[in-house]
Design a protein that fits this description.
By secondary structure, the chain is mainly β. It is about 10% helix and about 45% strand. The chain has four helices and 19 strands. A hairpin with a 2-residue loop joins strand 14 and strand 15. The longest helix has 10 residues. It is globular, with a radius of gyration of 19 Å. The two termini are about 25 Å apart.
């Protein structure tokens, strides 16, 4: 973080509606984090959708409560009026691993328009302001491998009808559709009790929720209620740790399975590290 710059005022901040934040003033920089401040009678749970759009494409989507839970898992401070969209991994152990995912908005990035949309439902006299952590772009050769990567966060939901083991529809999982490169996957679920990943027919992760959380605590993560996290980079390393399902990584098949003790609707949100051209 080289500078902390105030965002232009949000437009249409109303009790129920979509607040619009024009972020074009940050073009030319590297966007590392967005920090929003909520005022009035306005809670994070009343933010029912957040979408960051680059060139009109949704590159980041979540909602207030789910974003807050994932932030707390990663060790962010709890604050009822502050909500952060952090593209970096603050606890990674190398500079490149920390910076991967920050959004390069320099001229050569291909991004010419950036906009944040925040859907508010049921707030009373809400106010919404924000500031951003930005840095200047750099030609440092040591960063060449990560500078073009953007943190994509996409979501899907899945209805689990009963207890059992189910293949889950992780966004962009299928190599036949291009696959993706996962940093983490968040499962907002009350009844998920275990997870398993399979690539090329080989089981790579197979743990219960209890075992998964024990490992994460050893790596200074903070498991949250009703949230199961697949976190292959929990030890702070990036190289060789992300779960890549792209054909260019030599992957032809990939599956993700969840075990459930009862039926429910699961919301799945991803963290993916990809160049803009992959969107």
């Amino acid at each position: 973080m080289n500078k902390q710059m105030i965002m232009d005022p949000f437009q249409n901040v109303v009790g129920s509606g979509v607040a619009i934040g024009d972020m074009n003033k940050f073009l030319g920089s590297v966007l590392e984090k967005i920090t929003l401040t909520l005022g009035g009678t306005f809670t994070k749970s009343q933010i029912t959708k957040i979408e960051l759009k680059a060139n009109g494409k949704v590159i980041y989507e979540t909602d207030g409560a789910k974003l807050d839970a994932s932030n707390l898992y990663l060790g962010a401070a709890a604050d009822s009026t502050i909500l952060k969209i952090d593209f970096m991994d603050r606890k990674a152990i190398t500079a490149n691993a920390r910076q991967a995912g920050a959004i390069d908005l320099s001229v050569g990035s291909g991004i010419t328009a950036l906009r944040l949309e925040v859907t508010i439902s049921g707030a009373t006299s809400p106010t919404l302001t924000g500031f951003c952590d930005v840095s200047p772009p750099t030609a440092d050769p040591a960063e060449a491998g990560i500078r073009g990567l953007i943190l994509r966060r996409h979501r899907a939901s899945y209805v689990v009808g009963a207890a059992g083991v189910f293949a889950l529809p992780i966004p962009h999982l299928d190599p036949a559709g291009g696959g993706t490169n996962y940093r983490r996957v968040y499962f907002y679920a009350a009844n998920m009790t275990a997870l398993k990943t399979v690539r090329e027919g080989i089981t790579e992760h197979e743990v219960t929720k209890l075992q998964n959380e024990a490992a994460q605590k050893d790596n200074f993560r903070f498991p949250q209620a009703n949230l199961v996290v697949f976190d292959p980079v929990q030890d702070g390393q990036l190289t060789g740790r992300t779960w890549d399902t792209r054909p260019i990584a030599g992957v032809r098949s990939a599956q993700f399975y969840g075990t459930f003790s009862a039926g429910e609707t699961v919301v799945i949100e991803t963290e993916e590290l990809l160049p803009l051209a992959a969107y």
